[in-house]
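Task: complex structure prediction.
Instruction: return structure tokens for all chains below.
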Amino acid sequence: MTPRLPWARLPRLVTWILLTVVVIGPLYWVTISSFKDREEILRTTPTLIPTNPTLDNFRQLFTATDYPSYLTNSLVVALLTALFTVLVSFAAAYGLYRLRIPGGNKVAGLILVAYMIPGTLLLVPLYQSFAAVQLIDTRNALVIVNVAFTAPFCTWLLRGFFMAIPRDIDEAAAVDGAGPVRMMLRIVLPLLAPGIATVAVYAFVFSWTEFVFASQLVISDQLKTLPIGLSAIMGQYTVNWGLLMAGTVCTIIPAIVPFLFAGRYFVGGLTTGALK
Amino acid sequence: MPPAGRTRRRRPWTFHLLGYALVAPLGLLMLGVIGYPLINTVLLSLQNQGVVGSQSTFVGLENYAQALTDSALWAAIGRSGIWLFGNLLVQTLMAFGTALIIGGRSRWSRASRTWVLFPWVIPTVAVAVIWQWLSNSNYGIVPKIASAVGIDGLGSPFGDSALAMPALILMNSWHWFPLGAVVIFGALQTIPNEIYEAARVDGANAWRMFWRITFPLLQPVLFALGLVGSLWSFNIVDSIYLVTKGGPADASMTAPVFIYNKAFNQFQASDAAAVSVITIILLAAVAAVYIRAAKPKEDQ
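Output:
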């Protein structure tokens, strides 16, 4: 589709600007607000660029609130969730879609049913079970729940990647005398790298944003994750918008930075995984 | 796919053992964190527990009778319907439009495939803060822009019982549309260009090509996205709870928020469980109807 007339580009240009404003606009506004001082943030005529840029909000965030410990907890839980989701879903996908165990189709069907179960509805009995095995108020509880909710989807996502690897490779390796475990780790795993990256990013983001379970399964302040911590700041300092903006910016950045590096794999991976 | 039959028949039993061992961790996790609590939800719904984890006795179907005659529950289920339909509509439109924009060949299009996902990677709490800040009635940029173009006295929509639900749907759609956009974008990539070329030779216009080629070929993906997306949006609690807690005056109290509220704020654990079971049954029924209605078109 090559437009011949210059005005034919206009609708495309307008949609471009619209998309940029819708996606980047709110993020830009919050970011510049975090650099404004108390007086400027509440000024009646808003400024697009801070006139007196200040780091006070960030200083206060890191010294006067528990933000540093929330950040640590979120990082620990998200990284462990990503690690275990990769291990569990890669193993399961290999067994289901490569080794094709008898009954595998039934398990794959159950994975689809698992989507249907609303996580929130399971909060009450999960709380009781976790209390019985003394997992309440631990970061492990969050990792277990996050992995349980991401791994089924990720296993399904990996299906597409397994489909893309020709089976001839397995057979050639079998002729060469490679056992199934060696085949899995030496041949299939490296070919599946984009799939692994996709699953890891998905699990990290899921864990980073998870609120409902984190709000009930963890009680102590020093074990809370960022979303819970930020919502506490939201409640405690409602009037201090500058601090809240700084907290928001610092919650967004750790999620966006790894995404900038692995994002392209993720977009490619999500589309292959979801379609094949 | 080459016939793999011969190699498969020769597989020793250790092969199957390995297969089961590999699937076991996922199976155990799903049983422990999803299956077992699901059974416990049903058991709990037949008891009279208050605070989560406290002593309780068996009461039979009493909780169900109570829940089914509670008009607040039916109102919440109705709101869940509006929430689900609103999100599906807004998100699909946003995702479709975005998929068309980011699908271009220019460098600008390629770069946008990364940043367009930003809203999806940030936590719901941050989304909630951002939109409350933008729409704050005193200091927010949205009311200021509105008053600049002549609309004065615009309060925060989240505090208005008529506007809270639409505003939450827009906020939540902003958070989730990137995921749909990327999936639709990927599906668009799989349609070979030659089909469009041929249609253009036959004199088809863009509108016709969309309805005759793009839309039918995307149907399987849209079907899957619609099903998974609906289930995901139905279950959302955090977006709503963080901004309005279901208010003002229950205006945004959907079924999952209703359950969360009952269990953890009103301390009626077994009532919450009964409502949960009712909700799961309704959800399963809706999903079954949807699959039955949409599936035949997908089968070739």
